[in-house]
Specification:
Blueprint: H1 2-18, H2 22-33, H3 38-44, H4 51-90, H5 110-124, E1 128-129, E2 135-137, H6 138-141, E3 161-162, E4 165-170, H7 176-184, E5 189-198, E6 209-219, H8 224-239, E7 245-252, E8 255-264, E9 288-297, H9 299-303, E10 316-323, H10 324-332, H11 345-348
Helix pairs in contact: 1-4, 2-4, 5-10
């Protein structure tokens, strides 16, 4: 038994010394010192040996095991160092090679850029920028804006309601900030409110989610002529002299009188027909695209904030709401509103 232990030790030591990689060394460790190794079997069977042989065999086997473990550890350290040197040599970087091309610098989305332009234009006219919640109460979205209980905009086919809270909804316009801002500030007030709004509508010129900018001006002596001048200044700054603008009577629950503002269609140049004689699908043959609604703030709306100093007999003003996507489409000749949200870099990179 002692001779066999010595033979195992010599055989294993020779194999360990000849191992050429850490993987081969691990195989030798399992083979000679693992659970099924011959030396391990001898150690487990010592109790079955005669009493007089147990001490000699056990001591020799344990000594052999310890020596082999030391050899494995020493050889592993040498192989690790050698393999690391080889890896470093293979991974060496040639600093004389040309560098990787720089990644293109990102830029604001066209919607963000258009929003900022409208904001800057209105700030230049003396307005300040305010923001409000996208999840809104029915009171601010409809009731305080003079929408009667049976108004179509309140219906499920037009508005997204929170199922567990029927008085809570995704705002359908940025107009709720009219009331919120007037509650927090006494007149005069001049604000624009950018943000996302939500409606159940989807086609080439409508989206279930889109961006809107609300304008509000309240003070003493403000008239419809001031509204006309403000809109003309804003639209001239946005579109320049390349588009025609028209105003026509309209109706909104929270303004009286109300006007609708249109801009000439960029796809058919206001003719209503395309080059082949077909009806323009964007303006539906009208030659005009609706871009914003406006009007003088209804006295009933001011009545909801009269406690904040908005006496309808003393102050009055106007409000308007403009769709950011519509402005971007007109300015840049984009025929389909859905292109803004497709994330097609071929389209987005045109406006870097």
């Amino acid at each position: 038994m002692l001779e066999r232990i010595a033979g195992i030790r010599e055989e294993a030591a020779a194999a360990i010394g000849a191992a050429g990689s850490t993987a081969a060394l691990e195989e030798l460790r399992v083979h000679h010192l693992g659970r099924k190794a011959e030396l391990t079997t001898i150690l487990r069977g010592i109790a079955e040996l005669p009493q007089e042989e147990r001490g000699r065999v056990g001591g020799a086997a344990n000594k052999a095991r310890q020596e082999l473990e030391a050899l494995l550890e020493s050889r592993a350290a040498g192989l690790d160092a050698s393999e690391l040197e080889q890896q470093l040599a293979g991974d060496r970087v040639d600093v004389t090679l040309p560098g990787a091309p720089p990644r293109p610098v990102g830029h604001p989305h066209l919607i963000s850029r258009t929003t900022r332009q409208i904001e800057d234009t209105m700030v230049g006219l003396g307005y300040r920028v305010a923001e409000g919640p996208e999840i809104e109460h029915d009171y601010y979205n409809f009731t305080a804006l003079n929408h009667p209980p049976g108004h179509p905009a309140r219906m499920l086919q037009d508005t997204f309601y929170v199922q567990s809270h029927p008085e809570v909804l995704l705002r359908t316009h940025t107009s709720p900030m009219q009331v919120r801002a007037m509650e927090m500030q006494s007149p005069p007030i001049f604000i624009v409110v950018p943000g996302k709004v939500y409606r159940r509508d989807s086609d080439a010129t409508h989206s279930p989610m889109f961006h809107q900018i609300e304008g509000l001006a309240i003070g003493e002596g403000i008239t419809l002529a001031d509204l006309q001048g403000t809109l003309q200044a804003m639209l001239s700054a946005i579109f320049g002299g390349t588009r025609e603008v028209r105003m026509r009577p309209h109706f909104f629950p929270f303004t009286e009188p109300s006007v609708e503002v249109d801009v000439s269609c960029f796809q058919c140049e206001g003719s209503g027909e395309l080059a082949g004689g077909e009806r323009c699908n964007l303006c539906k043959g009208q030659g005009w695209i609706e871009i914003l609604g406006a009007g003088m703030v209804d006295p009933n709306v001011l009545g909801f904030v009269e406690a904040s100093g908005y006496d309808p007999e003393r102050v009055q003003g106007f409000a308007f709401g403009i769709g950011v996507e519509r402005v971007a489409m007109l300015r840049h000749g984009i025929p389909d509103l859905r292109r803004f949200f497709d994330n097609d870099v071929r389209m987005l990179e045109q406006f870097s």
